[in-house]
Write a structure and sequence with these properties.
heterodimer; A: alpha/beta; Rossmann fold; CBS domain Like; four-stranded antiparallel beta sheet; 13 strands; 24% strand; globular; B: MetI-like fold; 76% helix; flat; binds adenosine-5'-triphosphate; binds magnesium ion
């Protein structure tokens, strides 16, 4: 758990982050959104003390982060940034091994961990361990960047627009991978993005910032249905908020008990996807199937539309 | 064309070594430049010894310049040393603009004749290219790479040694190469203050009005400069290739 307490950063007379307090739950993904220059990166970097706050403090699992030298703190916190920042003169394996080396792991353990991560990120160790960053595609570089951030099994991972440079298809894939990894390692992730779709797709909680202040910090559905500020509605988008809301619920969560006619849809699909499928097929209802092929229940268009309204 | 370059390189090396090891066999070539039966080949000392002494002084000076210029370059690119950048730059620039001959004139009264004043003059003259290249190399490290290095938990020292210096290495090497090559030529002035070197041959030529000596001194110095430049450029390329820094 990360507690951010009344955190502020001033440069001269300008306040870049202004009294932000928030509690980030363990094993969750928190996404920070906001316009350019609203202080998102500054807030993120104060968590691992790449930037020292002017006021306030950060506690990780109850311990004040100022209790140890900043570089030692950072070895326990993963950090991935836009444009990956891989070391160009080091191989993929050496890049990933950076933090384990700093922590003094023995070579066998480092090798095993590098191999494990390459496999998790779908990079064949035989082909890629010895490659240099410039020999990889943008998507591969980005995956190595995240693998490097996760190498020493940090409990907390900070990501600053990690997928900003990727094209939409690779980005969607990277987001899916991140969700998998979060589930697999139980990492607490704080991610900064400009992309509201990304925020709604990944965030268990979303924080909206403007001019250095935290306007609202809540679950994505609450941001849509009960925005604390007109800026929050503008940020989350008014024109397609009903569809956004539908995208936050899965078919499995909304399935009604019983049987019905209609096309089969996956329990993991969002209501938005199910609605689109029904419109496309001209059907009124769908059968919700679990991944193992058992019936979970059914959904009707009316039941789906019900969920696209606030309150 | 690498084939052509290799042939030229070998030819230059063969010419240099041949002349230094068996200067007398080149006598017929130089005789037309002499008058009144003067010796066609420098005869007041061993050319090979002079060339090695010359190279020795240049390399010692370059080692000292490298140590100081790289150290200073590192210092002024740290947040704590940034305030010294203008001062360091001024000092290093003075080292370059103050003529080496003038440095000799100033230092001889202090340290006496011989190698020492030459070393000091070459040291001061060779600082600038290494210093400037070190600064550019360190300042042009990609900011994201540096941020990642700090974000991973490298200390300032670890970041410098394992990221910044390796990334700046190609430019630093280039600076050292420029400095060395400039000083191979400049070192000839050392002979005016009795340092052993190839300047001796040229000065002897000037004093006795023997064009053959002047040409020999110039030729050996020039060939050494070219070969050194070429060898160091090759070494740089190899280091950069193995470190994937192109
Ligand atoms: N070292 C600094 N000195 C002065 N001002 C700074 C400094 N660093 C950042 N700022 C200012 O602080 C503000 C917030 O910067 P920050 O990088 O946190 O914004 P951001 O929300 O991440 O923006 P973006 O979405 O463009 O990345 C900006 O207006 C920026 O100009
Ligand atoms: Mg930012």
């Amino acid at each position: 758990m990360i507690s951010v307490e009344n955190l502020s950063k001033q440069y001269g007379a300008t306040t870049v982050v202004d009294g932000v307090s928030m509690v980030i739950e363990r094993n969750s993904i928190t996404v920070i959104v906001g316009t350019s220059g609203s202080g998102k990166s500054t807030l993120l970097r104060m968590i691992n003390r790449l930037i020292e706050p002017t006021r306030g403090r950060v506690l990780i699992d109850g311990h004040d982060t100022t209790g140890e030298p900043a570089h030692l703190l950072r070895r326990r916190i993963g950090y991935a940034i836009q444009g990956h920042g891989l070391f160009p003169h080091r191989t993929v394996a050496e890049n990933i091994a950076t933090v384990p080396r700093l922590l003094g792991w023995d070579e066998a353990r480092i090798r095993a961990r590098v191999e494990e991560l390459l496999l998790v990120f779908q990079l064949d160790p035989g082909a890629y361990a010895g490659a240099f960053p410039h020999q990889l595609s943008g998507g591969q570089q980005q995956r190595v960047g995240v693998a490097r951030a996760l190498a020493a099994e940090p409990a907390v991972l900070l990501m600053d627009e990690p997928f900003g440079a990727l094209d939409p298809i690779i980005r969607a894939k990277a987001q899916d991978d991140l969700l998998d990894i979060q589930r697999r390692f139980g990492t607490t992730i704080v991610l900064v993005t400009h992309d509201m779709d990304e925020a709604f797709r990944l965030g268990d909680h979303v924080a909206v910032m403007s001019h250095g202040r935290l306007l609202q910090y809540d679950r994505p559905a609450v941001l849509l249905t009960r925005p604390a500020d007109p800026f929050v509605s503008r940020m989350t988008g008014v024109s397609d908020r009903a569809m956004r809301l539908l995208s936050l619920t899965t078919a499995g969560e909304a399935a009604l008990p019983g049987v019905s006619e209609g096309p089969a849809v996956a329990a993991a699909a969002s209501l938005r996807e199910v609605l689109s499928e029904l419109l496309w097929r001209g059907a009124d209802s769908a059968v919700v199937m679990d991944a193992d092929g058992t019936r979970r229940g059914y959904l009707t268009i009316a039941a789906i539309l019900e969920r696209g309204r606030p309150g | 064309m690498p084939g052509m370059a290799a042939i030229l390189r070998l030819a230059a090396l063969a010419l240099l070594l041949g002349f230094l090891l068996m200067p007398q066999s080149f006598a017929p070539l130089f005789t037309p430049l002499t008058q009144y039966g003067a010796p066609p080949i420098y005869d007041q000392g061993n050319l090979l010894t002079l060339a090695l002494a010359h190279l020795g002084v240049v390399c010692c000076a370059a080692a000292a310049s490298t140590l100081v210029a790289v150290g200073l370059g590192i210092l002024v690119t740290r947040p704590s040393g940034a305030q010294f950048l203008p001062l360091s730059r001024t000092l290093v620039n003075i080292g370059q603009t103050f003529p080496p001959v003038a440095v000799l004139a100033v230092t001889v009264p202090l340290v006496g004749f011989g190698e020492k004043p030459t070393l000091i003059a070459l040291f001061a003259y060779g600082l600038l290219p290494i210093f400037e290249n070190t600064i550019v190399g360190l300042q042009t490290c990609p900011p994201q790479v540096l941020e990642a290095a700090s974000g991973m938990g490298m200390s300032a020292r670890q970041r410098l040694l394992s990221v910044e210096l390796p990334l700046a290495l190609p430019l630093i090497l280039e600076g050292i190469r420029l400095s060395l090559v400039i000083n191979v030529g400049t070192a000839t002035i050392g002979s005016t203050v009795a340092a052993k070197g190839l300047g001796e041959v040229i000065i002897a030529g000037l004093l006795s009005n023997n064009n053959a000596f002047i040409l020999q001194g110039g030729l050996v110095t020039g060939l050494m400069a070219i070969l050194l430049y070429d060898a160091l450029a090759g070494l740089e390329r190899r280091i950069c290739r193995t470190a994937h820094l192109e």
